[in-house]
Amino acid sequence: MTRSTARLTALALAGTALAGSGAALAAQSASATTATTVTTVTAGVPTAGTTALGWSAAIRHQSNFGDGKGTLVLVPPTGGIMTMGAVSDDASVSDVSQDARKVLTARFQTGEGLRVTVWDTATRTPTYFRVAGPNSVIEVRFGGDGILVKRDGKIESRTLSGTLVRSYTAPSSLGSLEVSPNGATTYWSIGDSIQQRDAKTGALQKTYAVPTAYRGAAGDCWTSGTWDSTSLRLACTGDGVGTEQTFRLVRSTGQSTAIGPANSAIAFPTSPKWMAKQNRGNDSAIGFMYGSGFVELTGYFGLGSPSITGAYSNLAYVNNFQSGAASTPAYLWLGKYDISTNTMTRLAGAGSSSGGVITQAQTVDGHH
Fold this sequence. Notes:
- By secondary structure, this protein is mainly beta.
- It is 4% helix and 48% strand.
- The chain has two helices and 29 strands.
- The strands form seven sheets. Strands 1-28-27-26-25 form a five-stranded mixed sheet, with no helix packed on it.
- Strand 11 and strand 12 form a beta hairpin.
- The two termini are 21 Å apart.
- The relative contact order is 0.20.
């Protein structure tokens, strides 16, 4: 498992105590219900400069992957869709701004590098630019002077129109580019340390040591957003499938505290239980963290790799990923799971009143 496959979203509520037993969680999972679906939305986008919790940017297709009818849509936390415009079959959401007023989509074009689109969701206007280079080393995120581009051996800080402002050296081995919610800071996983750097200039601000058990060849750790207002969330994995563990790293002291046992899952600090994702090689599972390990949430996802697209408080947003001809349209939807009531609401895609299928999404949760 690599950083790019395991990169998860961080969220808000730290130190939540889990109630009940593993058996109780399993019973709760088995008895989960699906809430009434929602209607298509026509309201306006969130106010600029706010944190638009629960708003998602998603790729929607009319029937399935590769149908030539892909669109970028904005999905409010109450459900329904706001269509921004057409996208190519191979386009994906790279990032969504904290106020959901800007969305980055990208697609690789052979011989031409990455085609990046910056969407203004208020006006539904796209702006395009290209980044030349090998497909495998390009990643784009909001941050710095507007947009950060990670490529082999450097990071570029560009304006929202794509104009290059500055660039600085970065190791070619650097994994996923993690950026703070305000776009001012980046976090690099380098060997046995996490480096905090200025997003515009790359200047080193602070270095943190990863937990002892995951140093050297024993494993790998990387930041996946903030755990709370004072700490980072570390996702760590050992040598093999099913070896994940989460840590809370306090920025002021550099101290790491384990969240859940080793060889369990990557936890999300929701309430009243921690949601979690467990990687299983070619697929994954979503469920809850409990003291003795991971309890799977069943009955929703079918075959595939469900992901948590964002989460905060008692809510987790989930999307089931299946690619290619083998994908099953009935499972391609974006849902909102309420941990307190144990209900799943289909917000968009299959089984919702907006129809179509949702093949990928990112949700604003204020922590990545």
